[in-house]
Amino acid sequence: MSASVAAAAPKSRLDVVGLLSRWGTIASLVLLVVFFSLKEDDAFANSRNFINILNQVSILAILAAGLTVCLTMGLFDLSIGSIATLGGYLALRWGAEDKFGLGPYGVLLIVLLAAVVIGVANGVIVSYLGVSAFIATLATASILDGIALGYSDTATVQVGIPFQILDLGQAKFGPIPSPVVIMAVVMLVLWFFLERTQMGRHMYAIGGNPTAARLAGVRIKYYAILALSISAVCAVLGGTVADAIIGAGRPYGVGSVYLLDAFAAAFIGAATLRPGRFHILGTLVGVLLLGVINNGLSIMGAETFWQYIVKGAILIVAVFLSGTVSLRRQGV
Amino acid sequence: MDDTVGDLDAAAAVPVLDVRDLVKDYPGQRALDGAAFEVRQGEIHGLLGENGAGKSTLIKCVGGVVRPTSGEIRVVGQEVTLRSAKDAHALGISIIHQQSNLVGSLSIADNLAVGDSSSLLVHPRAERRRVREMLDEVGLDLDPRVLVASLRPHESAMVAVAKALHSHAKLVILDEPTTALSAEETDILFGQIRSLASRGTAFVYVSHRLGEVFRLVDRVTVLRSGRRIGTWDAPAENQPAILDAIVGDKVPQRAEQSNGPDRGRPLIEVRNLAVEPCADVAFVAHEREVVGLAGLTGSGAEEVASVLSGAVRPASGAVLVRGEEVRLGLPRRAIRAGIATIPKDRHREALLPGFSIRENISLASSGRFLTDPVSRTVRPDRERRAVTEAMQSLRVKATGPQQSVSTLSGGNQQKVVIARWLLEDFAGYVFIDPCAGVDIGAKAEIYNIIRARARAGAAVVFTSSEPEEYQRVCDRVLVFHQGRMVAELVGPEIEENAIVRSSLEPPAQHTLNQKEAVS
Ligand SMILES: Nc1ncnc2c1ncn2[C@@H]1O[C@H](COP(=O)(O)OP(=O)(O)OP(=O)(O)O)[C@@H](O)[C@H]1O
Ligand SMILES: [Mg+2]
């Protein structure tokens, strides 16, 4: 049946747009690394700086990976920045106070449970009250910001933080800093979750056609809650690592730095290898691309504003390419 | 009527549309391979061919939606290059594509006005009157301000028809316009086509409902693998040759006949079901039995089927599977109770657009490829094997399981939707118009699958918009009329005319009482 047709098809001419949209982001990553290596060979191209880059992007990567899970379902989680701030603050403060008498690991566990509670709240608002995730998480972000400021009296926690919590940001495994290890674990787990489990498949299906997914027996509300919980847990983890690196629990300004970059990384990822789809490997490429730009430009001594301009330009190109190709995939 | 058409043919020697050597390549696939096709003025020309033959691609090229790789298109003798749908429109070509070209988020009135650029300014009153007239012409009684997205499939199909017919085009092309239409609506459409054709409009008509085609068209062209196999005048007399041309060297399988009254225990029981327009419906589907629910659109047959699928929550009533009550209105519960449903509208209710065939098929039953029930990890190798098998058994024409469903031909998409529910064995199946848009070879295949599932012990509930299908698969048919079950046909009584007759005018004052239907 298909054999005769396939045989008749000629080797199609080079599909430039198709190739670019699949490999464009990876190619730019490689080109940037080569460019910075040639220009700043000593400062840029050495294993210490490469590990440094990974370390610099680790928090962003943790947040962006959680966000990717939400985006597969079409949920925009705008609360990850605020969740990160509040989570990091609580972890350090409660750790310093040994709030529950359970030791630092007990505190971490409780903070992660708090993340689940926030995620479930987000999910319930979205799926049972029918508020769009975009608005719902914008609202919870504001509430969480308020809680952080009120609970902290805007004071930073700096003393008495147990080393077990500080280790999340400052320990090293050989040459590898612990944030990089945490990033690797989070990415691996979420990659497996999205690619290899039925739950991941179902989330993608919901993103593709919610009506069809429901009729195929997929629990849409349940998955909305699950996805928003996963991104909340990642956010808390990222926020805690961020505060641990500095050794201070700050009640504001921690997570907001990463919010837009996390979206940028995920959307660059959706323009990588599988145009039009959010996926962990793509998000990792997006994160690295942003990291290399920041690191390379600052080593070159370029002023910071260039980082923003270059990032914005790359994002537009990436989203454009992934958009045109996903339309083509849909046969439009 | 036919005489007029003949005269016009003689008068207009130059074909309205003349397509030569048309080639269209897609990555890994050649959709058109030197196709040729002519349409004369005032004729109704049937364009036939199996799923994936290239019919829709040819039409998209003529409509300016797709750029052919090579070849020429002449409109009334002039060679043309079509860069957009607008170009085609300007040349007097109006098309209903297989996948609706209406905008769901706009009202009916706005949709009917879109693309009609006769005036920039809109005169609301005159406009509304014009839209009403257009709707009246096709027998639609709808408020023009209603959003197209909220219409039922047959209604939006008729709106598309109204739009195409009213465009004052030289050539109107209809790509499977009747898949969502009932018999009455099809008749209205055919009436409109004939009357416009007698005034000189040429029509191209694509459909897999061959009965319909032979009733309507003056000539037939058959495509296969992107090439023209032949063109026939007097199609009704040349039916066998045309069928051979469509099917090619594949021997079409004969659909199995029903296995008579050999049925098992009750499997699906419906009790006191009230769902618009039905007030109180009850029936039983047994093991090894295919029960047809027949009736005109809105008679209740399809509505009852969608309650079984869990898509619709009824006002009251109960459904029992093997004696256990199922919570209604939740597809998941229906599936867990063992009922699989092939829904009616594949684009809205079944397909994941832009996803691979593999992902589309394995959506419902990835249970079969899981390593364990806790982590629910997928085994890709097993998944691939099962999906490939399902594709082969339904003869899905594709480059492989990784091809995007959105690039499949319409009929092949439908096969994917059916394949989704064949990976696992369910106790009961609900097939809602499963053969919509499917070619004759694959129809026989689908009938066989339905019979095979019944033979293996499943209870099957079947509905169709083509009355002739019931006699090919059903053991028993329940006919609905205005929300009541008015007739039960068993075995040899199941016959197209009997079904149509009782669905139009039921035996006087006779509602089938529950005892009879349940027995
Ligand atoms: N956008 C696309 N990308 C890749 N292949 C395509 C695309 N569109 C169509 N094809 C392929 O071209 C072939 C012809 O498809 P087409 O839609 O013309 O068939 P058809 O005759 O209309 O079939 P059906 O009766 O099922 O509607 C199919 O094999 C299909 O997979
Ligand atoms: Mg088609």
UniProtKB/TrEMBL annotation, chain A:
Gene Ontology terms, MF aspect: transmembrane transporter activity
Pfam families: BPD_transp_2
An example Gene Ontology CC term for this record: plasma membrane
Record-linked InterPro entries: ABC_transp_permease
Chief place where the protein resides: membrane
Transmembrane segments: 20-38, 59-90, 102-121, 128-151, 176-194, 222-246, 252-273, 280-299, 305-327
Keywords: Cell inner membrane, Cell membrane, Membrane, Transmembrane, Transmembrane helix, Transport
Subcellular location(s) of the protein: Cell membrane
Membrane topology reported for the UniProt record: Multi-pass membrane protein
UniProt-recorded name of the protein: Ribose transport system permease protein
From TrEMBL, chain B:
Keyword terms: ATP-binding, Nucleotide-binding, Repeat, Sugar transport, Transport
ABC transporter domain boundaries: 17-250, 262-507
Record-linked SMART domains: AAA (SM00382)
Protein name: ABC-type sugar transport system ATPase subunit
SUPFAM superfamilies: P-loop containing nucleoside triphosphate hydrolases
Keyword Transport: yes
One Pfam family in the UniProt entry: ABC_tran
Organism, scientific name: Nocardioides soli
A molecular function GO annotation: ATP binding
